[in-house]
Amino acid sequence: MTEDFQIDVISDVVCPWCYIGQRRLAAAISRLPEDDAARRAAVRWHPFQLNPDLPQAGISRKRYLEDKFGGSDRAAQIYARVSAAVAPR
After folding, report:
1. Containing H/E element for 10?
2. Looking at the predicted structure, is the pLDDT value of residue 69 above 90?
3. Distance between CA 76 and CA 85 in Å, rounded?
4. Sign of torsion, CA 31 33 36 39?
5. Cβ atoms 12, 47 nearer than 8 A
């Protein structure tokens, strides 16, 4: 396989938006014609830690989201967007 170009993706494995992006990238590449250069791209994944200050033992997801987004109502609004982004179209 000839690599015509490279796609570098920087992602945190626990980030829902990163996961959504990964799935959308894979779907987009799969829809390209076989002779499209993007289909022959090398995709390289690089780690990124969104919150390196989390304690090693972790904290509850609920508490983390409420602290990050300023309360349970705001966290619910943000995650409604995540749900909408993954809903079947």
Report:
1. strand 6-11
2. yes
3. 14
4. positive
5. yes
